[in-house]
Write a structure and sequence with these properties.
Helices cover 40% and strands 21% of the residues. It has 281 residues and is an alpha/beta fold. The chain has a single domain, classed as Ribokinase (UDP-N-acetylmuramoyl-L-alanine:D-glutamate ligase, 3-Layer(aba) Sandwich). The chain has an 8-stranded mixed β-sheet with strand order 3-1-6-7-10-11-12-13, sandwiched between helices. Strands 2-4-5 form a 3-stranded mixed β-sheet. A two-stranded antiparallel ribbon has the order 8-9. Helix 1 runs parallel beside helix 7, helix 2 runs parallel beside helix 3 and helix 7 packs antiparallel against helix 8. The relative contact order is 0.14. Bound molecules: 3-hydroxy-5-(hydroxymethyl)-2-methylisonicotinaldehyde. 3-hydroxy-5-(hydroxymethyl)-2-methylisonicotinaldehyde (PXL) binds next to helix 7. The site of 3-hydroxy-5-(hydroxymethyl)-2-methylisonicotinaldehyde has 14 residues, from helix 7.
Length: 281
Amino acid sequence: MQKRALAVHDISCVGRCSLTVALPILSAAGVDTSVIPTALLSTHTGDFTGYTHLDLTDQLLPITDHIATLGLHFDAFYSGYLANGAQVDLVLKMVDRLCDPQTLIFVDPAFADHGKLYSLMDESMPKMMRALCARANTIVPNLTEAAFLLGAPYRASGYDESYIHTLAEGLAANGPENVVITDVSFTDAQTGIAVYHRADGSFNLLFRPKLPGVFHGTGDVFASFLLSAVLGGLPLMSAAELALSCTHESIRYTLEGGEPLRYGVQFERTLPTLINALAKK
Ligand code: PXL
C-alpha cells in the first residue's frame, strides 16, 4: 500500500520552507501527502519584510472534520509551523480525529531559531508546543527550540555533549520516543544532529562540515527528508544519516549556485539521492 501522510504547516508563497518543502520531498519518496495549511504568508518571516499573513485558525477544525468523514488512514501526521500558540490545542484535536494507533506522530516544533522566537510567534508558543510534543512519537527541534521547550538556557556555543544529552533526555521524558535535535555544533568546523531513542537510551551524534551562511528553511528540509526516509522503511539512525546528507548536499548546491540565501536551499537537486537511497533499501 502506498504510504499516506498529512502535513500541517503554513504555506509561504516564496522562500522554500514548510509546505513548499514538505510536499515535494514526501512526494519524491512516493508518499501520498495531504495538507492542512495553518497560515498563508507571502514569504517566510526569516529574511523578508512587508510579508502578508493570513491566520487560518478558523479553518483547521472544519477541514479536519470533513477529512475525518473520509475514513482515511494516515501513516504519518507531520506538523510544523503553526500561526499561534492557540493552534496547538486545535492540532491536538486534529490528532484525535485523524490519527489511529498506527499513525506516526512527527512534530517539528518550528517556532524559533538562533536563540529567538520567529518574528510572528507569540510568547505562549513554547509552553503550548510542549503539549503537542508530548503526543508525538518523534520530535525534531533545533537547538533553540529544544532549550525553549524545556525552559533551559539557550547556549549558542561553548557547550558539550552532556548539554545536548541532557536536553534530549529532558525532551524524551515529556513523551516522545525519539528526539532528533538539529543545529548541534561543538566546533566552528562542524554542524550536525543528535539522535536520542528513549527505549534503549541510545544517543548518537552525526556531523557534517559546517558551510558558511544562514540557511532558511533547512529545519523543514531536514525534517521532511527524515520523515520521508522513515516512511520509506529506513531505521531511525539510517534515516537521520540520509536526511543529514541530503540537507548538507542541498546547502552545498545553493552555495555553488551563488543564489540569495533567503529563498531557501536547493533541495530539488538532492531528490534523486533520496529516491536512490530508498530504492536500494
Ligand atoms: O522554516 C520555518 C518557517 C516556516 N514558516 C514560516 C517561517 C519560518 C521561519 O522563519 O517564517 C512562515
